[in-house]
Write a structure and sequence with these properties.
The structure holds 2 protein chains of 2 kinds. Chain A is of the alpha/beta class. Chain A contains 12 helices and 9 strands. By secondary structure, chain B is an alpha/beta fold. Chain B starts with a helix and ends with a helix. The chains are: A alpha/beta, B alpha/beta. Chains A and B meet through α6, β6, β8, α9 and α10 of A and α3, α4 and α6 of B.
């Protein structure tokens, strides 16, 4: 019997997920033994035509990282969906939208103007902007279209499994690959990580008070962090209570509060709303103005609570209820 | 607002109200038995305590078509469960801040303390909020996920010089 064929692809991502595959180190050798990697543009010279030449369902599994924000990515993931029996959304961006998903605070026009015209290091007197199509003496050239709204992978194609994390922890990758190879998979749609909050595996767990009562939120650079004590109890915005475990508590172990890259546990609809709820509930005040003053210390609630999950949130993006938005909607 | 004027039917906002069982819901009941007349735009969901209100419920209401969300609880100090309404206040405060930075107008989310005897306050708040939201117009959200996108038309970008001209230099 021939070896199962595997594909890797990246969309809007930083490359950290590809790095996570390399981080398997020598453990990648038995995997490479067991499968045929037939598509992995980052590591090897494959082209789109190689994928198109495959028959439908010929790939046993495709691991796709990155969120989807351009017509090119949309076409590629659609093609991979047709050619693959299983699609695994690999990493926070494919799973929930990730850091690139924070672009949903703006639209394409605002973003392009900022990047190509307004940034202090930009010198663009001719106001050149990316165009999707230009005609040059040699013929017509085209570029993929950027979208206004960044999407998660499962908002554009059907996804079978999710590997959470930014990037996914090596142990979870190994377990997932072994589960796929052995065919011992959980129900479709599962997140391939334990369905328990991070606090459960946190080394500071025993110092977490029964009830948190916070008078002030602090940022990591403002205090000398006690390396033993619960970070929330120290006033730091740690999202461990609402975030899925499986990362080995790597951030909290080095005095960095959890920012939530592993996403929510299974029953949560909207990660940010749940995180917000947990944090707001721990405020120790009954006075309207004092509560407001304490919570004002959270300067960027969207970036704090939806850092990795804005596109996956119930609202998906930021809205501008202004005249210009009306024009956009009428198109 | 231009949307309102353009469409034939006047805009009737949909408002979802989460009322606590012990105070605000009872007050709404009182308004009903007293045959008070108020805006029919509010759909009331009874919850045991305003402290039970998960911020997810509010977002889900907006997602499923609400133009506004009203939360009603007992006055501070009057909570049937001692402190539930303080939890509601804390979550509401932060949720409001979050919604503001996501471009959702502040008048679309409102928290009111309404005691069991305050039927007239229910009437006033419902009428006020309906008017305020009517003024804002419908809440239009990005289409729900899972509706497959069909080549989303990106907004045209106005530029003074196209890349083409630069290329020819």
């Amino acid at each position: 019997m021939s070896k199962p064929k595997v594909g890797f692809y990246w969309c809007a991502s930083c490359g950290g997920c590809e790095e996570a595959v390399i981080d398997l180190a020598e453990d990648i050798l038995p995997i490479v033994e067991a499968v045929d990697i037939v598509f992995w543009p980052v590591a090897m010279d494959f082209k789109r035509a190689d994928v198109e030449a495959l028959s439908d369902g010929e790939l046993a599994v495709s691991f796709i990282n990155g969120s989807v924000r351009s017509s090119e990515q949309y076409e590629m993931v659609g093609l991979l969906r047709a050619k693959s029996q299983l699609i695994v959304a690999f990493g926070s961006c494919a799973h929930l939208g990730g850091i690139p998903g924070l672009a949903n605070m703006f639209d394409r026009k605002e973003m392009f103007e900022e990047i190509y015209l307004r940034l202090p290091s930009v010198n663009n007197d001719k106001r050149v902007m990316p165009a999707e199509e230009i005609t040059v003496p040699e013929g017509k050239l085209t570029l993929p279209a950027s979208w206004d709204t960044v999407k998660t992978l499962d908002q554009v194609i059907e996804v079978d499994y999710y590997l959470p994390g930014c990037p996914p922890p090596v142990d979870l990758i190994k377990e997932a690959v072994n589960a796929i190879l052995s065919g011992e998979l959980p129900p479709k749609g599962s997140v391939l990580a334990p369905d328990v909050a991070l606090c459960e595996e946190c080394p500071r767990r025993d110092s977490k008070p029964e009830e948190l009562a916070l008078k002030e939120f602090k940022r990591p650079h403002e205090i000398e962090i006690d390396p033993e004590k619960c970070l929330l109890a120290q006033g730091l915005l740690c999202l461990g209570p609402v975030t899925r475990k499986g990362c080995g508590a790597s951030c909290v172990s080095v005095n960095m509060p959890c920012t939530g890259c592993m996403g929510p546990t299974g029953r949560v609809m909207d990660y940010g709303a749940k995180a917000l709820s947990a944090i707001a509930s721990s405020v120790d005040s009954k006075d309207e103005h004092e509560i407001s003053a304490i919570l004002d210390r959270i300067v960027d609630p969207v970036g704090t609570f939806y850092r990795y999950s804005l596109p996956a949130s119930l609202l998906h993006r930021c809205y501008q209820q202004t005249a210009s938005e009306d024009e956009g909607k009428e198109q | 607002m231009s949307d309102n004027e353009a469409s034939k039917e006047p805009f009737e906002p949909k408002i979802v109200a989460f009322f606590c069982n012990w105070c605000t819901y009872t007050a709404a009941d009182l308004a009903g038995t007293a045959r008070m007349v108020y805006a029919p735009n509010i759909r009331v969901v009874r919850i045991m305590c305003s402290g039970r209100l998960d911020p997810q419920f509010v977002l889900a209401a907006f997602r499923d078509g609400a133009d506004g969300v009203l939360i009603g609880g007992c006055h501070p100090g009057d909570c049937h469960y001692q402190e539930g309404n303080y939890y509601a206040l804390r979550r509401f405060t932060l949720l409001k801040k979050l919604l503001k930075s996501m471009g959702i107008e502040e008048a679309r989310l409102r928290l009111e303390w309404i005691a069991a005897s305050e039927g007239d306050k229910v009437k006033k708040v419902m009428n006020d909020m309906t008017e305020a939201v009517r003024e804002l117009g419908p809440l239009r959200l990005e289409p729900r996920a899972y509706d497959l996108i069909q080549a989303q038309p990106a907004a045209e970008i106005e530029v003074t010089t196209s890349a083409q001209e630069v290329h020819h230099e």
